[in-house]
Amino acid sequence: MKHSAMYSQIREKTYTIIFQTNTKAGRLFDLILLGFVLISVLLVMMETVADFNLKYHSYLITLEWIITVFFTIEYLLRIFSIDKPIRYVFSFYGIIDLLAILPMFASLFFTGYNILTVVRALRLLRLFKILNNPQFTSQSLKLKRALIASRGKIVVFIYFVLISTIIIGSIMYLIEGKESGFTSIPMSIYWTIVTLTTVGYGDISPQTPLGQFIASFVMILGYGIIAVPTGIVTAEINKYNKSRETQHQNPCGNCEADIYPSNAKFCPNCGHPIENN
Amino acid sequence: MKHSAMYSQIREKTYTIIFQTNTKAGRLFDLILLGFVLISVLLVMMETVADFNLKYHSYLITLEWIITVFFTIEYLLRIFSIDKPIRYVFSFYGIIDLLAILPMFASLFFTGYNILTVVRALRLLRLFKILNNPQFTSQSLKLKRALIASRGKIVVFIYFVLISTIIIGSIMYLIEGKESGFTSIPMSIYWTIVTLTTVGYGDISPQTPLGQFIASFVMILGYGIIAVPTGIVTAEINKYNKSRETQHQNPCGNCEADIYPSNAKFCPNCGHPIENN
Amino acid sequence: MKHSAMYSQIREKTYTIIFQTNTKAGRLFDLILLGFVLISVLLVMMETVADFNLKYHSYLITLEWIITVFFTIEYLLRIFSIDKPIRYVFSFYGIIDLLAILPMFASLFFTGYNILTVVRALRLLRLFKILNNPQFTSQSLKLKRALIASRGKIVVFIYFVLISTIIIGSIMYLIEGKESGFTSIPMSIYWTIVTLTTVGYGDISPQTPLGQFIASFVMILGYGIIAVPTGIVTAEINKYNKSRETQHQNPCGNCEADIYPSNAKFCPNCGHPIENN
Amino acid sequence: MKHSAMYSQIREKTYTIIFQTNTKAGRLFDLILLGFVLISVLLVMMETVADFNLKYHSYLITLEWIITVFFTIEYLLRIFSIDKPIRYVFSFYGIIDLLAILPMFASLFFTGYNILTVVRALRLLRLFKILNNPQFTSQSLKLKRALIASRGKIVVFIYFVLISTIIIGSIMYLIEGKESGFTSIPMSIYWTIVTLTTVGYGDISPQTPLGQFIASFVMILGYGIIAVPTGIVTAEINKYNKSRETQHQNPCGNCEADIYPSNAKFCPNCGHPIENN
C-alpha cells in the first residue's frame, strides 16, 4: 500500500495527539477525554436513579448519544493512526474502548436494557489509563512492588482467615440455630466475615449468651489480626525505602564503598569525591 | 499619621497580649480566649438540642451576647494593634474571627435562623490556632511532613479505591436490584463505600446469596487494603525518624553539615575528616 | 512500741507471703487471690443477669460473703504486716482493696442497691497488679514507653479529629435535619464519631443524597486517617527496638565503638574481645 | 514380621504417593485429595441450606457416600503404608482424617443429625496440611515467628483490653439501664467489645446523652488502640527483615558466622578479620 506524504503526515499527527502525552495537544486531548469519560460514567449512574431519570430522560439520552459519537470517532481515529490496528483492537484497552460504544448502538435493537446500562459503566476502566501518567507511574510502581513482594505472606494469611471463617461459621450455626438468622452454614460464614472484618451490619447478630461470647472472641480476633497484613505491607515498603536510599548507587571510585546518603558529594568512608549519575 | 508616645505604647502592649504567646499576659489571654471559644461552641451545640433550648433559651441567648461582645472587642483590638490591619482582615483567621461575631448581629435583622446558628459554629476553627503553639508545632510539623511525603502514593491509592467502588457498586446494583435497597448505582456505590471502609451501617445489606458472596469479597478486600495507607504513612514516619537520628551528631568542622551516617569518617558534603565524639 | 521476736517473725512471714512474689508461698497466695478476684468479678456480673439471679440468688449471696470475708482478712493482714500502713491505706491499690469489701458491708444498711453492685466490680482493678509480675513488666514497659514517646503526636492527632467531628457534625445537622435522626448538633457529632471510627451502628444514617455523599467522604477519611496513629506507634516501637539492639551496650574497651550486635563476643570494628555485662 | 518383596514394594510406592509431595504421582494425589476435601466441605455447607437440601437431597447423600468411601480407602491406605500406624492414628491429622469418615457411618445408626453434620465440617482442617507445602512453609514460618516474638506484648495488650471492657461495660450498665438493651453487665461488656473493635452491629446502642458521650470515647479509644497490635507486629516483621538482610553476606573465613553488621571489619563472633567482597 502506498500513502501520499500528506496522508502519512496527518496520520502521524493524529497518533501524537491521541496516543502520546508529552505534547501540548496530546495533554489537551487526554484532558478532554477524561472529562467525557467522567461525564459518561455519571450519565450511567444518574440513569439508574428513578426520579432523576423520569424528569430528565430525554436530556440523558441526548448527552449519551453525543458522547457515544465522540467515542466512536475517537475509536476509529485510534485504529486509523496506529501501526498495528489489530493488536490494539484485541488489547485490554482496545476492548474497553469498544465496550464503551457498543451498548448504545445495541440499545437500538435490543430492549434487554439493564445489563447494557451497566456494560456502559465499564467505560470507567478507561480511567485506569491515567495511572500510566508519568506523575503517578513511579508511585503506583512502588505500591505494586511492595504488594507483589508481600504476595506470599498475604496468600497464607487469607488462606488462614478463610478456613477460620468456615470453622467459626459452622460452630455458630450449631449454637445459634435458625431463630437468630443463622439459617445455614453459608449464612453463618457470611456473618463471620461481616464480624471478623469489623464491618458489622447487624442484619444477623447472635442472640444466645454462648453465641455472643464466641462473637466477642471473633471480634477481638478480627481486631487483632488486621495487624498482620498491615505489618506485612509496611515492612515491605520500609525495606524498599531503605534499600533505595542507601545502596543502589554507583560505588565510590576510590574505596568502592556503596552505602552512602543519596545526596553525598564525598564518600563518607574515604573522602573521595563522588561522581553523580 | 502621627501618634503620641503613649498611644503607640498601648498599641504595642495590646499587640503583645493578643498576638504573642511568650509573655505571661499573652498566655493568660490565650487561655481565656480558648475558654470563651469552647463555651461559645458548646452554646451553639446546646441550642440545637430541643429540650435543652426550650428550658434555658434566655440563658443561652444572654451568654451568647456576652461572648459576642467579648469577641467583638477582641476583633477591634486586633485591628487596632496590628501593623497591617487590611492583611489581617482578609487572612484566614481574620475571616474566621469576623464570622464568629457577624451571625449574632445578623440574627437581629433576619429570622433565617438555622444557617446562622451553624455559621457561628465556625468559631471552633479558631481552635486550630492552638496548633501554632510551639509545644505542638514540632509534632504537627512532623505529621504534616510525613503526610505530604506520602501524598503521591495516597492519591494513587484513593483513585484506585474510588474506581473499585464504582465497579463493585454497578455489579451489586445488577445482582441485588431494587428489592434489597440497591435502588440505583449511586446508592450501590454508597453501600460499597460503607462496606469497604468496614463502617457497615446495615441500612442496606445484600439479600441474595450471590450478593452476599460478593459482599464477603468486598469486606475482605476492605479489611486487607487498609494495610496500604497504613504502610505508606508508617514508612514515611520511619524514614523521617531515621534521617533525624543520624542528625544528632557533632557537625562537620569544615562545612557544619550535621547529617551523615553514624559510621562516616569523612563529611559526605565537603570531604573534611570527621572527629569522633 | 516493742514487739516480741515471735510477733515480729510472723509479721515478716506474712509480709513475704502477701506482698512478695519471689517465694513459693508468695506465688501460691497470688494465684489464690487472682482466682478469688476473678470469681468475685464473675459474681457481680451474674447478679445483674435477671434470670440467673432469680434462680441462684441465695448461692450468689453466700459466695459473695465468703469472698468478702476472705478479702477482709487479707486487707487486715496487709495493714498488720506492712511497715507504713497509713501509706498503704491511701495508696491506689489500698483504696481499691478497701472498695472491694466495703459495698458488701454497706449493703447491710442501705438498699440503694445498683451502685453498690457496680462499686464491687472495681475489684477487678486489682487484676492490674498482675502486670507488676516480672514476666510482663518488661513487655508492658516497652509498650508504655512507645506510647509516652508518641504522646505529643497522638494529642495533636486527636485534637484534629475532635475539631473535624464538630465541623462535620454541624454540616450534617444542616443537611440532614431532624427527619433522619440528626436531631441536634451533639447527636450529629455522635453520628460523625460512629462513622469516622468505622463503628457504624446504623441507628442514625443519612437519608438525603447529599448527606450520603458527605458520609462517604467521612468514611474514606476515617478509613484513611487510622493510618496516622498506627504509623506513629509503629515508628516509635521500631525506633526503640533499633536503639535497644544496637547502642545501649558498654563500649569496646579498645576502640570505644558502641554499636555492635547484642550477642557479639568481639568488637566488629577492631576485633578486641568484649566483656559481657 | 516378614513381607514379600512385592508387598514391601507396593507399600513403599503407596507411602510415596500418599505422604510425599516431591513426586509427580504424589503431587497429583494431593491435588485430587484437595479437590475432594473442598467438595465435601461444600456438601456439608449446602446440606444446611434448607431450599437446596430439599431439592437435591438424594444427590447430596450420594456424593457424600462417594467421598466417604474414597476417604475411607485413603485412611486405610495411610495406616497400611506408614511405618508406625499407631502413632499416625493418634496424631492430630490422624484424628482429623478419622473424623472425616466416622459421622457418615454413624448417621446409619443415629438420627441426632445436626451435630454429625458439623463434625463432618472438621474435614476442612485437612486443608491446613497445604500450609506444609514448601512453597508456603517459609512464608508462614516468617509470620509465625513474628507472632511468637510479639506474643508477650500482645498478651499484655489483650489483658489490658479485657479489663477495660469489663470496667466500661459496668459503667454503661449503670448509665443506660435496661431500657436501652443494656440488660446486664455481661450484655454491656458484649456491647463494649462490639464497639471497641469497631464492629458496631447496632442491635444495642446507647440512648441517653451521657451514654452516647461515653460511647464516643470508647469508639475513639478503640480506633486509636488498634495502632498498638499493628505497631507490635510490624516492628517484629521489620526486625526480622533487618536481621535477615545483614545475613546475605560472605561468611567469616574462620568461624563461618554470617550474621554481622554490614560495616564490620572483624567477625563479632570470633574476632577474625573479614574480607570485603
Automatic annotation (TrEMBL), chains A, B, C, D:
Specify where it is mainly localized: membrane
Tell me the superkingdom of the source: Bacteria
Protein's recorded name: Ion transporter
Please give, as recorded in its UniProt entry, the membrane topology of this protein: Multi-pass membrane protein
Write out the entry's keywords from A to Z. Ion channel, Ion transport, Membrane, Potassium, Potassium channel, Potassium transport, Transmembrane, Transmembrane helix, Transport, Voltage-gated channel
Listed GO biological process terms = action potential
A Pfam family recorded for this sequence: Ion_trans
**Compartments reported by the entry:** Membrane
Q: Where are the transmembrane segments?
A: 28-46, 58-77, 89-116, 154-175, 182-201, 213-235
Which molecular-function annotation in GO is an example for this chain? voltage-gated potassium channel activity
**InterPro entries per UniProt:** Ion_trans_dom, VG_K_chnl, Volt_channel_dom_sf
Q: Where is the Ion transport domain?
A: 27-244
GO CC annotation terms, alphabetical: voltage-gated potassium channel complex
